[in-house]
Amino acid sequence: MKRITIFFAMIVSALAVQAQTLDRMQWFNEPESWSIQNNKLTMQVTPQSDYWRISHYGFTVDDAPFLYTTRGGEFEVKVKVAGDYKVRFDQAGLMLRADKENYIKAGIEFVDGKYNISCVVTHHTSDWSVITLDKAIDHIWIKAVRRLDAVEIFYSFDDKSYTMMRNCHLADNTPVMVGMMAACPDGNGFEARFEEFKITHLPDQRRLEWLKKNKE
After folding, report:
1. What's the average model confidence in pLDDT over 10-27?
2. Is the dihedral of CA 151, 156, 158, 160 positive or negative?
3. How far apart are CA 203 and CA 148, in angstroms?
């Protein structure tokens, strides 16, 4: 009986670990070629794909690869991003998506031969903000913190010191798809790589305040 108990405990423990791995996540617009090894995602980004709605360019596209899990409430998510960027608008990073009209994507975007830390916030129409880097980089960490009705976006070159690049709205009390996205609007595809993907649950801030005010 003791051995059986230990055996089942090992199974439960293994499942708990697997539940945090990339191969338990789902694809939205699965690319033709991708792999997961040692919890590292490598994808060949779909050519002529992107996420954008209406503003400035006058078109809407919603067809780039996105590996995601669904989260409700408040959380922190971060990932290490790298890619063999080739042509204008090649990009890779994090994405938080409530639906086709409400999403946030943030990461590296290659524009006019330069690397840019890029963020697109879409609420019916898309906007775009960039921070141009003075040199090419091998990788970057992108972090998003969702609290109540806002998301703060950070970047880091060493996973130690983080700089905030954006604070934007995202409706609270709404489950969102969260994960890794890459797009290639102009080109024939490129290789994007993601490591150290991690989501950390954050206790609901309103509930914490209520508990603080209503201590036993």
Report:
1. 61
2. negative
3. 11
- Can you tell me the distance from the alpha carbon of 39 to that of 20, in angstroms, rounded to the nearest whole number? 10
Distance CA 147, CA 76 (A): 9
- Identity of the residue numbered 186: D
- What type of residue sits at position 149? D
193 contact partners, CB below 8 Å, separation of at least 6: 40, 41, 42, 81, 82, 83
- Reduced DSSP (H G I as helix, E B as strand, rest coil) percent helix, strand, coil of the chain, to 5: 15, 55, 30
Q: Is the pTM of this model over 0.85?
A: yes
Average pLDDT of the chain to the nearest whole number: 91
- Residue 84 and residue 72 in contact, taking contact as beta carbons nearer than 8 Å: no
pLDDT of residue 166: 97
**Residue 128 CA: distances (Å) to CA of 116, 117, 181:** 11, 11, 16
The string of pLDDT tens digits covering residues 155-210 is 999 999 999 999 999 999 999 999 999 999 999 999 999 999 999 999 998 999 99
Cα distance between residue 76 and residue 28, in whole Å: 21
Tell me the domains of the chain and their CATH numbers: 2-203 (2.60.120.200)
